[in-house]
Amino acid sequence: MNETTSRPDIPLPPTIRSRYIEGINGLTMHVLEAGFETRGRPCVLLLHGFPELAYSWRKVMPALGEAGYHVIAPDQRGYGRTTGWDAAYDGNLAPFRLTNLVRDALGLVFAFGHRNAHVVGHDFGSPVASWCALLRPDVFRSVAMMSAPFGGPPPLPFATAELPAKPKPEDPVHRELAALPRPRKHYQWYYATRAADADMHHARQGLHDFLRAYYHHKSADWKPNQPHPLAAWSATELAKLPTYYVMDLDKTMAATVAEEMPDAATIASNQWLPDRELSFYAAEYERTGFQGGLQWYRCGTSGAFDAELQTWSGRTIDIPSAFISGRQDWGTYQRPGVFEAMRTRACTRMLLCELIDGAGHWVQQEQGAEVSRLLLHFLRAAADEASSQLR
Predict the structure, then answer these.
(1) Which of 8, 14, 157, 205 is most buried when burial is the number of CB atoms within 10 A of its CB?
(2) Strand order in 321-326's β-sheet?
(3) What are the contacts of 339-343 at 24+ separation with CB within 8 A?
(4) Radius of gyration for the chain, computed over Cα atoms and rounded to the nearest angstrom
(5) Alpha carbon separation from 184 to 38, 119, 242, 279 (Å, rounded)
(6) Range(s) for CATH 3.40.50.1820 in the chain?
(7) What does the alpha-carbon distance between residue 87 and residue 295 come to, in Å, rounded to a whole number?
(8) φ and ψ at 73, to 5 degrees?
(9) Is 308 helix (H, G, I), strand (E, B) or coil?
(10) Are 344 and 151 in contact (CB under 8 A)?
(11) Among residues 33, 127, 98, 169, which one has the least CA distance to residue 317?
(12) Ordered per-residue pLDDT tens for the chain, 391 residues
């Protein structure tokens, strides 16, 4: 039996369909699609983060489709039912770098016959959306970033011609985190380790319960999530982050979130991610593991592709932009200064910036109706701005 036809149905609303698109930058991409009933609609591309899937947009897609958009949400490279990627730890990381993820997105938009699109990204999908806007503003006409603000491309050294060459300085923060009275480590560098995938894929509590605790810990349901700006990228400031961001040095992510596993009553009362929906995530990650998504973190923490990204040093996002996050989401502030840089320097036409109360990190799942309302408001504002410029 064909592998794709043997997989269980996805628990989707009737207005969303699942399909496969071949020949996308070496991938066969699994895509969820809404608003496919008529042609000629403007396109909205939705990019998920970690550890999610195209499925994380299930509460937003019907509203966008009903409003007249053609909505496409892929399982991105390394995730879910999309195939053609290699997640071997010792394999080639280059296909997972940001510029190639932009190429994936561009190829998918073109494959559907669109010359332009609006792009929305959540979590690690947010930097992909940001780089789509930065690199191809002729195609991506607006960008909405969710839960992960964009501070701009990495800078190039400047005015150094008369100075002696210096080696790249080591970031001392990791050594300083490990030396704290309560020794700590940053989750992104943990995600870059060889052990991280197995730690989560084969979690002692089981994969389903690992994901339940992980999603709970980063949601508004976990009451200690009361984020605020941090003063600096320093060990003492980063240690203020919850343990799902700055972990205890000797613990895995599975052990970290197990300490905050919700009780049976809390799970039963969860309306934004009931067990039936969580089971779909668990089944998909049971099949694929997490390494495909972890490769993205390895690209970032290794610095291997920084020089390529510096090609666009100083460039800004000049198309209409928006930022949407949960008010109880630490992701807004986990990189000190980036939220502020996004609004003052990196994005020159920011039309909307909203923090939604009652939502943590999984904003489009926790508060799907409000995210849909804000996205539609932003898309209309972007269209109005474009129309006024034509007059």
Answers:
(1) 205
(2) 16-24, 27-34, 70-74, 43-47, 117-122, 140-146, 321-326, 350-356
(3) 339/149, 339/229, 340/229, 341/149, 341/151, 341/152, 342/145, 342/149, 342/150, 342/151, 342/152
(4) 20
(5) 53, 36, 11, 31
(6) 16-154+313-390
(7) 7
(8) -135, 110
(9) helix
(10) no
(11) 127
(12) 345 546 889 999 999 999 999 999 999 999 999 999 999 999 999 999 999 999 999 999 999 999 999 999 999 999 999 999 999 999 999 999 999 999 999 999 999 999 999 999 999 999 999 999 999 999 999 999 999 999 999 999 999 999 998 888 889 999 999 999 999 999 999 999 999 999 999 999 999 999 999 999 999 999 999 999 999 999 999 999 999 999 999 999 999 999 999 999 999 999 999 999 999 999 999 999 999 999 999 999 999 999 999 999 999 999 999 999 999 999 999 999 999 999 999 999 999 999 999 999 999 999 999 999 999 999 999 998 877 776 5
Where do we find the tokens 């972990």?
A: 247
Whether pTM > 0.85 for this model: the answer is yes
Give the C-alpha separation, 328 to 215, whole Å.
13
Residues in the chain: 391
DSSP for 42-81 reads PEEEEE--TT--GGGGTTTHHHHHHTT-EEEEE--TTSTT
The architecture that CATH gives domain 16-154+313-390 is: 3-Layer(aba) Sandwich (3.40)
Rounded to 5 degrees, φ, ψ at 102 are -65, -40
Rounded to 10 degrees, what is the CA torsion of 381, 384, 386, 390?
A: -170
